C-alpha cells in the first residue's frame, strides 16, 4: 500500500511496524516519524485507523478474560523467536515437553 508520494519514512516500513506503533512499543523518535507519515499519507492513516478500531474491539470483547500463564509464556516465546529471525519449529515443542505419558497400570 502506498499513496505514490515520497515520504521520509516509507509506507512499507510504517505498515511493517504498525502494531509496534499501536502498542507503544517503539522509541519516541520513531513514533514521531510515524505520526508525521500518517499526517501525509491517507492510505496508511486509513490502515492505522482500521487496525486501531479492531484492537479496541478485541479489547472490549475479550479484554476481561484472564490469559493462562503458560499460554502467555508460549506466545511471548514465539514472538521472541520471530523478532530474532529464528525459524519457528514445525511442531509444538512446548506441548511435547509438557506432555507426560500415562502411568502404567499393573495387570492383575
TrEMBL record:
Residues 11-44 form the Putative zinc-finger domain. This is Mycothiol system anti-sigma-R factor. Residues 87-108 are annotated as: Disordered. Residues 95-108 have a biased composition (Low complexity). The gene is rsrA. NCBIfam families: antisig_RsrA.
Amino acid at each position: 500500500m502506498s499513496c505514490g508520494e515520497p515520504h521520509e519514512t516509507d509506507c512499507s516500513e510504517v505498515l511493517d511496524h504498525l502494531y509496534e506503533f499501536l502498542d507503544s512499543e517503539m522509541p519516541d523518535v520513531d513514533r514521531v516519524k510515524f505520526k508525521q507519515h500518517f499526517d501525509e499519507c491517507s492510505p496508511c492513516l486509513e490502515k492505522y485507523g482500521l487496525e486501531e478500531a479492531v484492537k479496541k474491539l478485541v479489547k472490549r470483547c475479550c479484554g476481561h478474560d484472564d490469559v493462562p500463564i503458560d499460554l502467555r509464556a508460549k506466545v511471548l516465546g514465539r514472538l521472541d523467536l520471530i523478532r530474532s529471525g529464528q525459524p519457528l519449529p514445525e511442531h509444538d515443542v512446548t506441548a511435547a515437553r509438557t506432555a507426560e505419558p500415562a502411568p502404567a497400570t499393573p495387570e492383575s
